[in-house]
Amino acid sequence: MTDQASSQSGGANVIHPGYGPLSNKAFAIYVVAFFVVWSLRATVFIHIDESIESAVWKNVYSNSIKFIVWVAPVFITLGVLGLHPFTYLKLTTPVNKRGLLLGAIVTLVWLFLVVLGESIISHRSVGAMLSARSSEWFGILAGVFFSPIWEEILFRGFVLNRLNESLSFWKSNVISGLLFMLSHWPYWVSKFGFSGRVIRDSVNVFLLGCLFGWLMKKTNSLWPAIGAHNRQQLSFRSDSRVVRAGPMIRNQSIICFAGEDWWYHHPHSKNHIMRRLARAGNRVVFVNSISMGLPSLSSPDLAGKIKRKLRSYAKAVRRTEEGIIVLSPPVLPFYSSRIVRALNRWLLVAQLKLLMVAFELRDPILWIAIPTAREVAGHLGERALIYQVSDKYEANTMDHASSSELIRTMHQDLLARAGLVYYSGRKLFEEDIEEHPEIAHKAKLLEQAVDFEHFASATARQWDDPEDVASIGRPRLGYFGAIESWLIDQELIRYVSRKRPEWQWVLLGLKAAPLAVEELPNFHHLGAKPYSDMPRYASSFDVCVLPWVTDNKFVGYGSAIKVREYLATGKPVVITPLYEYERLDGILRVSRGYDDFIAKVEDALENDSTDKREARQQSVKESTWDARAEAVSRDIEALL
């Protein structure tokens, strides 16, 4: 190699091949040929990887193909040109120690910022992030060790060095960084489309490519760039299926048809669980209730519910502080018509597909908690279907005009299709298991829970009465939650008010239509209040009550969250009979008739104690939404 030039760098002789051996045209052909072959491999033939079930053999296969396409041609080309591959690629040159130290510092700072940022976003400690990967030894060996070597040999060792023969270093480094970025595009674009994720990752890979090139220049060796690439892979590597964030899964896409409205309902179970899944690092779409149909035209609730839903529609798509995407999808609430159901399916799928593209959701977990969402099941490319049964849906003839038979059919279809079925109440769970024994293996009880610390603060600290309560006399019988004419036992309230007119009824919550008992002087409806204010209002109650009707089949299956929230406050609790809470009779007070309701309230007012308050709180202290979300996370992990 008499025509080759020699230069001094870092105290060692480094051989450069000169401009002649590989022409610009030949180099361009080489690069184009590489991209053609790799694009075919990353798109057309990627299904071969996906067909290999063993993770070990999948890694062996993918890394072997990458060596054949990325590395072998480099060695062959250099050998044909009469060049020593290891020398040309700077795999044998002595390392410039000062440059190596500087490069190591820069790399460590970069990785620290990346890991710190990820730990903040995912609510995990750095230690938890690293330990979560400790069991993935073979994936780390293949993905973190071999793959960076192949990539650095091609793009820094060969491409950057060849470009630097005719261009300045930084021009060469930028071009090689861009080519390095583009080499990832075939797979990314085929999997994610031209999404925000691809743009974000492209910028990151380009900048990293430039960093690795700079490290090679500063150290006069390819090995520090390989080392930095190894460490970068270790920081970013995550299981593409399920990654645990402490006790929670993360990096999953979840679409939840909640059967409730984020903007105006007191938070139900779906709201609480989805918040926690989102905080753990999952992408969550919360679909506000698509209803089970309009109430009948004669219903006093009709106008109020339409007005409330229109306000929700006006919000369209919003993102919460937890990152949850809340969608209020317009649909036609006439589910008895097959044509309308088909049109609704098209509308819902179209809206959600757009959101999935915009927010980079793929292979979602579909969580359905309202039977009418059956229409979208199987149309969103979901990898799993979860059905949550919160009510005896077919028994609800008050809220909508859809036939019970239609709702029952939808419910049974979802029971059959779901991979996991949750029940919010014991009565629902026990009866469905008896009626459908074939679902016993996939059915689970997901009881209601409580934000314990939040509600316990009602008695854990001193509160001033809210302004709208301060002028109301005592004793106060307090209630918060749904207020419907068919739900609240207005005859009970009238009877108690005649017998104990000094008792003040204080109700907080939404109502679609006025109640007849609002004419009573001791009845006070204060409207809906923010969830954050509930402890303060609860602190102003003397007794927390649940005055629900007892002659409505639908209500009898209820599992009111508010009862656990009442118990967490430590306040005395008196309820009308509800199957879900019969087992807690004695800790709370279950009334058996109107006179017994009065007797139970009087007992609560006269015979309460610190021990009884602590017993009430202890009964729900471990039943938190955090615990429920962790259990759900484990179930999803097993399902996937």
Chain-wise SSE layout:
Elements: E1 5-9, E2 12-16, H1 24-43, H2 47-51, H3 55-80, H4 85-88, H5 97-122, H6 126-131, H7 137-163, H8 169-182, H9 185-192, H10 196-219, H11 223-236, E3 243-245, E4 248-250, E5 253-257, H12 269-279, E6 283-287, H13 302-315, E7 317-319, E8 325-327, H14 338-358, E9 365-368, E10 384-389, H15 404-417, E11 420-423, H16 426-435, E12 443-445, H17 452-460, H18 467-470, E13 476-480, H19 490-499, E14 504-508, E15 523-525, H20 534-539, E16 543-546, H21 553-556, H22 561-569, E17 573-575, E18 589-590, H23 594-606, H24 610-618, H25 625-639
Parallel strand pairs: 5-6, 5-9, 6-8, 9-10, 10-11, 11-12, 13-14, 13-16, 14-15, 16-17, 17-18
Antiparallel strand pairs: 1-2, 3-4, 7-8
Helix pairs in contact: 1-9, 3-7, 5-10, 5-11, 7-8, 7-10, 7-11, 8-10, 10-11, 12-25, 17-22, 19-23
Structure report:
The chain is an alpha/beta fold. It has 3 domains: 5-238, no CATH class; 245-449, 3-Layer(aba) Sandwich (Rossmann fold), CATH 3.40.50.2000; 452-623, Rossmann fold, CATH 3.40.50.2000. 50% of the residues lie in helices and 11% in strands. The protein contains 25 helices and 18 strands. Strands 7-8-6-5-9-10-11-12 form an 8-stranded mixed β-sheet, sandwiched between helices. A 6-stranded parallel β-sheet has the order 15-14-13-16-17-18, sandwiched between helices. Strand 7 and strand 8 (325-327) form a beta hairpin. Helix 5 runs antiparallel to helix 10, helix 10 (196-219) runs antiparallel to helix 11 and helix 17 packs parallel to helix 22. The chain is elongated, with a radius of gyration of 32 Å. The model is unreliable at 1-20, 118-143 and 235-246 (pLDDT under 50).
